[in-house]
From TrEMBL:
Assembly and binders: Part of the 30S ribosomal subunit.
Originating gene: rps18
Protein name: Small ribosomal subunit protein bS18c
Pfam family, one: Ribosomal_S18
Subcellular location as annotated: Plastid, Chloroplast
Keyword Plastid part of the UniProt annotation: yes
Segments crossing the lipid bilayer: none
Keywords: Chloroplast, Plastid, Ribonucleoprotein, Ribosomal protein, RNA-binding, rRNA-binding
Keyword Disulfide bond annotated: no
Length: 100
């Protein structure tokens, strides 16, 4: 038999868990929480995070608590100048006249 046909399985490489045993999942632990949020401010899925179901639930609750307490923004804008006013322009030049 050909050796290339025997080794059809992919090699499995064990990765380190994203949350260590000493890490406490809490809304105050911002360095831990920020790893599980996307650039837009969305909570990343369990598949992306490589978390257990229990860990994902605890992370989600911690992120929501931090958002409510204003420790984290609900949205992260890539364009921070989006809400700034550039110039104040007058809307009307004279008194308003109704047309009949």
């Amino acid at each position: 038999m050909d050796k290339s046909k025997l080794k059809s399985k992919r090699s499995f490489r064990r990765r380190l868990p994203p949350i260590g045993s000493g890490d406490r999942i809490d809304y105050r632990n911002m360095s831990l929480i920020s790893r599980f949020i996307s650039e837009q401010g969305k909570i990343l899925s369990r598949r992306v995070n490589r978390l257990t179901l229990k860990q994902q639930r605890l992370i989600t609750i911690a992120i929501k608590q931090a958002r409510i307490l204003s420790l984290l923004p609900f949205l992260r804008n890539s364009n921070e100048k989006q809400f700034e006013r550039t110039e104040s322009t007058p809307r009307t030049t004279g008194p308003r006249i109704r047309k009949k």
